[in-house]
Fold this protein.
Amino acid sequence: MLMPDVLPPLSPDEARHSARVQAHVRALIAAGGGWLPFSRFMDATLYAPGLGYYMAGQARFGAGGDFVTAPELSPLFARCLAQQVAELLERADGEDIVEYGAGSGALAEDLLQALAARGAMPRRYRIVEVSAPLRALQRERLQQHPAAGTQLEWLDGPPAGQWQGVVIANEVLDALPVDRFMVTDAGCLAIGVADTGENFEWWSRPADAVLAESVARLVAGLPGPLPAGYTSEWRPMLPAWIAAATATLARGAMLIVDYGLPRAQYYHASRDGGTLCGFFRHRRVEDVFARVGLQDLTAWVDFSAVADAARACGLELAGFSTQAHFLISLGIDRELDAARADAGLRERHALEQGAATLLLPGEMGERFKVMALTRGIAGPLAGFSFRDLAASL
């Protein structure tokens, strides 16, 4: 749940760190001739080594951080996901799980415990993590609860050799950098970042060929044209990320969980302004230039673009659903009943509250979607048996 809009002041250490990140961004803007595509600004403020939001070691997840993901919210999420993962491992004759951006390690911990209870432990659980501080956090957490028979590995990038199994990307795609654009009668504008000397500000210029052609293709796939002045975002790295993450997956599936929409809903005329925002101490921040390096930057996922990118590299769309429908398909009610049976009063209340947040439309139930992409696996999947929204893409 988001907190009221009153933002807490920065500590002296936070202010000094933000100043270092701002100096880094100003150098990039200067090197770019006074203008920087927003995707480069976002990449620098999130991922610059030793400086970026995910790279500098501050608390990011849970009550003491800036946001809470589904695995931290409730163990029911991983227990349901384990059923789908177990089915995919069996059908792929796979032994490996590769998780991208494992955050605090909560999903890996709970998922391995749930798979162990099902007798479906993978041979290897590999985490692709670019952040050294997060790697350390994950190692510490997972070493406290060793997964018997499963080899834990941390990788800098996608696995090099051919493998079979399941890729998991929970709240990863929303953090891939986006570029901002505006549709005008005279053509497409790129909305980038300029430096006033005291602050950063939006500055537009004619889009280059790549952005202009990408927006044109995007608009061509919509039910109608976008009005002049319409502003939104586009994720240029998405196709390459999907291709790289699945390049060596010989047989298996990728499960993507994130907040997002099909393209026609994402780029609806009523959603002018896009979805880009920041998060700081559980508060949504509209000013993405505030607290540079200290606040998360994120934008919703165009799941139609994900499906297009998947098909382009030989994957099949095997299911698309809201998180609520996905968890209902996998028996979250049964998981909740089983967990409550062994819990005290306070724990039962926490489980019930967690389930409500995972499922309710006003919380995570409809905003979050789940997509399954497969290679070498045919037939329906359990997680999409209640309702599959693939036709909406």
